[in-house]
Amino acid sequence: MKIKIADLEFxxxxxxxxxxxRVKAIGLQLNEDFKQSVPVFVGVLNGSFLFIADLxxxxxxxxxxxxxxxxxxxxxxxxxxxxxxxIDLIVDIKGRDVLIIEDIVDTGNTVHYLIDKLKQxxxxxxxxxxxLLKPTALQKKIDELKYVGFExxxxxxxxxxxxxxxxxxxxxxxxxxx
Length: 178
Ligand code: 5GP
Ligand code: MG
Ligand code: MG
Prior knowledge:
The chain is globular and about 45 Å long. Helix content is 21%, strand content 33%. The chain has helices at residues 16-33, 49-56, 109-119, and strands spanning 3-5, 8-14, 40-45, 64-71, 84-87, 97-105, 125-133, 145-151, 157-158, 174-177. The protein has a six-stranded mixed β-sheet, with helices on both faces. Strands 1-2-10-9 form a four-stranded antiparallel β-sheet. By secondary structure, the protein is α/β, with parallel strands linked by helices. It is built from three helices and ten strands; from the N terminus they run ββαβαβββαββββ. The protein has one domain (17-71, 84-173): Rossmann fold, CATH 3.40.50. The structure holds guanosine-5'-monophosphate and magnesium ion (2 copies). Residues 47, 72-73, 79, 102-110, 156-158, 162-164 line the site of guanosine-5'-monophosphate. It comes from Mucilaginibacter ginsenosidivorax.
């Protein structure tokens, strides 16, 4: 069923059950991969808030969770090369295993910026987990990107945390622009 958000129409792309299953599978994998240390999960607000919440409930190993806030799209439907750094990460990550949790990697500029910034703080390791990836939009290779929920076409999506003009974040499924 099509939905309207502000001036645009969207149609279903990934339903809630499919997201739930995939998030569970990623959680199991993280429990295995990070069992040797107490990792710091770094959620990138706003878009990843539902993904982080659902993913973290699947984590059964000791871990910390903290947040940073970056913005790139500012209400439009295409990636801006300029990144707005709204809220810095407070927790000390020196010597820690860090997992960045993102909603979507599009051009890769935002996550590349964050990896660069956090690397300067001396973590033991940095890896990235993103719910979505647009492989054909990626402008630089991101070796740290180890966990991806779904690869999608180069199309604009909303729902499950992702917005269009700050709306649609509450949807439990992911929709693409018609
Ligand atoms: P990048 O820097 O990789 O081009 O874009 C990263 C950020 O842009 C994401 O964290 C997300 O906030 C936003 N973004 C990229 N693609 C989409 C999309 O299809 N829909 C929405 N709502 N945001 C997107
Ligand atoms: Mg994001
Ligand atoms: Mg946005």
